[in-house]
Amino acid sequence: MELRTLTIENIEEIKSFFFDIFTKEPWNDDWSDINQLHAYIMDLIGNLNSLALGLFENETMVGLSMGSIKHWYSGTEYCIDEFCVKTEEQGRGIGTQFIKEIETFIKQRGIKQIFLQTERSVPAYRFYKKNGFFELEDHVSFVKEC
Fold it and tell me: Is the pLDDT of residue 65 over 90?
């Protein structure tokens, strides 16, 4: 397995990988608007502080992490917006290996922690807990329709 930094030059591969995972169970996200998909991926990978990483096995991407580097009073953190493993590869320990590779990568760059959000009702919740992530007791997420 090889961890690689991804850029805008990889956008078509990223979009295809992301689409294949998140339009299926358990997510069932509707990414049929390809312009919206393109804009979303650009939001994640097209900024100065973006950090997109791919895990490759024999030149095939099996894992994808997209987020940004944020400087915070307690240290610099990698805020993951999207983390996924190819559906047919799940259950082989690839996600756990990917997280460990990311941790090594960011530690080498002086980044102190990983921050992410997920829902309690999806398999990712148990995955993150199993891999040493803990819930922030005082953290609350809000949303307001406008």
Answer: yes
